[in-house]
Every structure is written in C-alpha cells, then in structure tokens.
Design brief:
With about 70 residues, this protein is mainly alpha-helical. The protein is about 65% helix and about 0% strand. The radius of gyration is 16 Å and the shape is elongated.
Length: about 70
C-alpha cells in the first residue's frame, strides 16, 4: 500500500470518528455523513486501483495467499 493510500485511509477513519462525535454532541447532519461516504468511496477506489508494481524495478509484487 502506498503512502498516499495509507494517509487517505487514516483520514477516512479520522473523519468517521469526527462525524460520529459531532453527531453524538450536536445531532445528526446528513451532509456530514454524505461527505464521509464520498470520502470512503474515494478511499476504496484508491485501494482498488493502486498499482502493485515496484516503481524502482518494474516487477510485480508477490502476494502471499495465506
């Protein structure tokens, strides 16, 4: 996983915590939840489309299945 994808994942989780805290403290806001869903979908898209090649060698990374 690339650094930008990890950062996006951390930001998505952080946004979930912030939106949940806002909802508990001040009540629900549909726009905040909508924004979080969009952010989550963007994060999933980044995970799904990331290239598994090693940039320096051009080799595909080996996945271990278990």
């Amino acid at each position: 996983m690339s650094g930008s994808t990890k950062t996006m994942g951390y930001m998505t989780v952080g946004a979930l915590v912030a939106v949940t805290a806002y909802t508990v403290a001040l009540g629900s806001s549909g726009w905040l939840w909508f924004g979080w869903v969009v952010l989550g979908l963007c994060t999933i898209g980044m995970l799904a489309t990331q290239d598994t090649r090693d940039v320096t060698t051009g080799d595909r990374s080996r996945r271990h299945d278990g």
